[in-house]
Design brief:
Order of helices and strands: EEHHHEHEHEHHEHEHHHHHHEHEHEE
Distance between the termini: 140 Å
Number of strands: 11
Length: 580
């Protein structure tokens, strides 16, 4: 044991001093007490931090969180009832919020649908306006081309469909050509769709009124060389063979143009002529005369039968029975909307039935039975029932189809090979226009070309086209009013002449003024030559170099001995100059 006394020894050992003993048994620890300055600084920084957070929260729009509802104390006498009322109010409020969301969503959907409908209506109206404007431009272009074709061409090629040539003729243009001495040639296109004997008969019938030729523009270009010979434009020969003798008989046509009704093959004919000519055909006008009826009447049975015979009846016209669907089809010549049918009266009954009845009135019953291999029938209804039974045409439910549906099917099958064609008239028509005189001395050659083609066609075999159904021809095509076109052409010619006269007068006045100015300036031109020759070069040098350049002096030394005493240009056309 240690003794606190100084110098006291236990067991012979010396006891430590009191100071050493206290230091060995106690440890000195640093006080945890903070200085007040540190404490206050920390509090200040905390306040600044909170103030900064509050300021940022205010900028961002963050509101201070509400204090938690302490709830209803348990000592409240009506606590259960109040909690039930609050629950009912909460459910009611949630239902109202949900209903408002549904109403807002439905309103947005309704507004969106309304906006889409308005947008579709606006687009539809805009598209209709654009289509109307486009159709007006097409119609105006067609009229301009037709006017130029009629007035500028000296030879007019009237394009006729070989299946119904008489129905494709235009009496107004033929009358104009007869009055003005214009040459007209009838061109029977699509001759490969008709039996050769029928085409030969049509050439004979139409040849009594004007030169006629049959062509196959897209099937070997047969007949195109004969047409070129009639125009005096035999294709050039590259070898030593002499050109055909016929080309010397017919004077070459200077301006040739084709015209006709839609779907007669005008564009294909012009293309075949250029290909067969094998040289730039400047004599063939690029413009094509496209005839349209004067009045776009409602569809009728004669108009539709004419289109069906030619295979040009659009499916929409037969399906709807109206003239509106005809505008949806395209003209094969122009790739533009077709014209509406041109015959006037509208039928009270469905259009396909009226067309079938009209066809049965014009054709022989035996030929119709033989063509479609049908038994005997009684009337249009009996014919359609027999046709439906033979073709197994029924409704969707397997019952008998409606007569209108059967009629549409029959009209769609009618132009299929061997097809249908119109028979030519046997006797000359009274009052027919004679268009031979304008051809003059070329008449014998044209008649010889027609006879050779008739003989070649008559010698051929009819083939499968011999079984075609023959329909009598009933008359010329629709009436076309060209008086307005001719009036516009006359007005344009008068305006052109007036403009030419004005331009001539202006040219004369300008020439007179130029003469007067030349006379007045002749006196002073000699004095101004020296200044001009000396100043132009100097000014140019000052502009280019930027420094004053000594003006050249015109030397009085002559370039030649015979030009002494005169300032004359040198041999290279420049004035003799010398520097100062």
């Amino acid at each position: 044991l240690a003794c606190p006394r100084e110098g006291f020894q236990i067991g012979g050992s010396e006891v430590q001093q009191p100071e050493d003993w206290l230091m060995s048994k106690t440890h000195h620890h640093k006080s945890k007490r903070k200085k007040l300055s540190t404490k206050y600084n920390i509090q200040k920084k905390v306040r600044e931090h909170k103030r900064r957070l509050k300021k940022e929260a205010k900028k961002m729009g963050v509101k201070k969180g509400r204090k938690k509802d302490p709830g209803i104390p348990n000592s409240w006498p009506f606590k259960a009832q109040m909690l039930q009322e609050l629950e009912v109010k909460k459910e009611k409020k949630e239902k109202e919020i949900q209903q408002k969301r549904q109403d807002a969503k439905q309103k947005n959907e309704t507004d969106r649908q309304l906006h889409e409908e308005e947008k579709r209506a606006a687009n539809k109206e805009r598209e209709a306006a654009r289509r109307r404007k486009r159709l007006e431009q097409i119609e105006q272009s067609r009229l301009d081309h037709l006017r130029l074709v009629i007035t500028r061409a000296d030879v007019l090629l009237q394009v006729l469909d070989a299946r119904d040539p008489q129905g494709c003729r235009c009496a107004a243009v033929e009358a104009y050509a007869q009055e003005n001495g214009r040459k007209i040639i009838f061109v029977l296109t699509k001759a490969d769709l008709v039996a050769p004997q029928a085409v030969a008969q049509w050439i004979k019938a139409l040849g009594s009124e004007a030169p006629t030729v049959a062509v196959q523009a897209e099937a070997g270009r047969e007949g195109i060389r004969e047409l070129l010979a009639m125009l005096g434009r035999t294709p050039p020969h590259k070898g030593k063979d002499a050109p055909a003798a016929d080309a010397a008989v017919v004077s070459p046509a200077q301006a040739v143009a084709a015209f006709g009704f839609p779907n007669t093959g005008k564009k294909a004919l012009c293309r075949a002529l250029r290909q067969e000519f094998r040289a730039p055909a400047k004599w063939l006008l690029e413009m094509i005369g496209r005839l349209q009826p004067g009045v776009n009447a409602a569809s009728s049975s004669p108009a539709t039968l004419h289109l069906v015979v030619r295979g040009a009846a659009p499916a929409g016209l037969l399906a709807s029975g109206g003239a509106t669907a005809a505008a949806d089809a395209l003209d094969e010549d122009t790739e533009e909307p077709k014209a509406e049918p041109f015959f006037a009266a509208a039928d009270a009954e469905p259009l396909p039935l009226a067309v079938v009845k009209l066809l049965l009135e014009r054709v022989d019953t035996a030929s119709l039975m033989r063509r479609f291999r049908l038994p005997s029938f009684d009337g249009a209804e009996g014919f359609l029932r027999s046709f439906a039974k033979d073709r197994n045409i029924t409704s969707k439910r397997g019952k008998e189809a409606a007569l209108e549906i059967i009629a549409r099917r029959f009209l769609a099958e009618l132009p299929v090979t061997p097809g249908v064609c119109c028979a030519p008239f046997q006797v000359p028509r009274p009052g027919a226009a004679v268009l031979w005189p304008p051809h003059g001395t070329a008449v014998p050659m044209l008649e010889a070309a027609m006879r050779s083609q008739v003989e070649a066609l008559a010698a051929r075999e009819a083939g499968p086209l011999a079984g075609a159904l023959v329909v009598p021809s009933v008359g010329m095509g629709p009436e076309v009013d060209i008086s307005a076109l001719l009036t516009e052409a006359v007005d344009d010619g008068d305006n052109d002449e007036a403009m030419d006269d004005e331009s001539d007068d202006e040219d004369e006045e300008e020439e007179e003024e130029d003469g007067e100015s030349d006379g007045e300036g002749a006196e002073s031109s000699g004095d101004m030559d020296d200044e001009a020759d000396g100043s132009i070069v100097g000014q140019a040098a000052e502009l280019i170099v930027g420094l004053p350049f000594p003006k050249p002096v015109v030397s009085a030394t002559p370039c030649d001995a015979g030009r002494a005493g005169r300032k004359t240009p040198c041999a290279f056309g420049a004035v003799a100059l010398s520097r100062r």
